[in-house]
Amino acid sequence: MFGVLLLSFVSCFITIFFHLCSHSYVPKLTTMTRNLWLFLFFSLLYLSSCRKDSAPPFTGVVTTVGTGDDEIKVAVVRGTPYEMGKQLGTLLADDVRETTENFLEAFRKEYGEQANVDIFLDAAWKENAPYIDSRVLDEMQGLADGSGVPLEDLRRMHMVPVVSPYACSGVAMWGDATLDGHTYQLRNLDYTMDAGLQDHPLIVVYLPDKGTAHFNITFAGYIASNTGMNADHIVLGEKGRSPSSEFPYDIKGIHFSFLFRSLMYDAATLDDVLHTIDTASLLKKRYCLYFSDGNGDGIGAKVYVDGPDDGKITVWHDNDSADPMAPDIFPGVIYYTMKDEDAADYIRTLYGKFDAGNMISLSRLVAGMGGNLMDVVYDATTLEIWVAYANGNQDAALQKYVHVDLKKYLNY
To answer: Which end of the chain has fewer CB atoms < 10 Å from its terminal CB, N or C?
Structure first.
């Protein structure tokens, strides 16, 4: 449209210009001058047709890493939150639909009739939605529009982890604890494998028009985050402590999975993370959050939320004798796992020698076998990960940890 209007304008201008030149009161143009004007006008027209906004819109890219049973899809999306959600939905419509249907079906089988469960999840959404980042809400709408999956089902699916218990493991190391001085973090997600989430593994690379590029290690259709990292080298992980005996939980507050997406957009330093934690209305469950910052010499923190009792939030850094959840403490290390005694022994033995390979071994050591859905090892310094998903009913820790250099996706 712009090109047509410009062409009309230029044509009129040339017509009037040469009409004027035909009158005696305008100096006559030489043939060379006339040709030069024509060249300048049509060069302007050509350049205007090459404007950046005339290029086709970015529609997202899906590629893969790993092979065979270890193959994982990587989706790169760019733009506003709504646009990125719609790109995801359009590119992965079948995966989004299957993940949503299977996740909800598994939850319904465990907790009751569909109608009753849907009422319960809808009530949970109504209670929890005011705490969810508007960017995530916009993305979810885009995901629904792109995939054709009803928005109500996507909302219900995202409430299942909010109302469920978790186990999991987390460790972060940096400085003298590691072989190369890099900052490493692991996050084991010990969660149900009955929903078939492992059949739709997905790494999403978000390139937002506003905010920091970030990486969500997740499952197709699930746009909240169990763990992730952003391009500012901030890594996020969690370990749940809420027993099933406390179900149903008080969910008036932001769930860590939605908090993580906000932090990946906004946090450039560990101080940014801790400030957000300090000012957020956190969900009143029991859980530990793990954060590390791969900039410079690295640093990390463990945040314990004791919601059901008094809502108390405690922050521990490395080598903190006040940390009651570590049987031993080490400089440059924070941890809380399914097998803390084993973790402490392993850290003590290999202290100063940890690299990606030894972090993978530690991840396997502390995995909750029989329900180990996904494991991720991060090098926060270099923006690399090693990730394993369960295969059928075989735990993630028994699979190959697929290496992904996330830096190469930042220039799409």
So the answer is: N
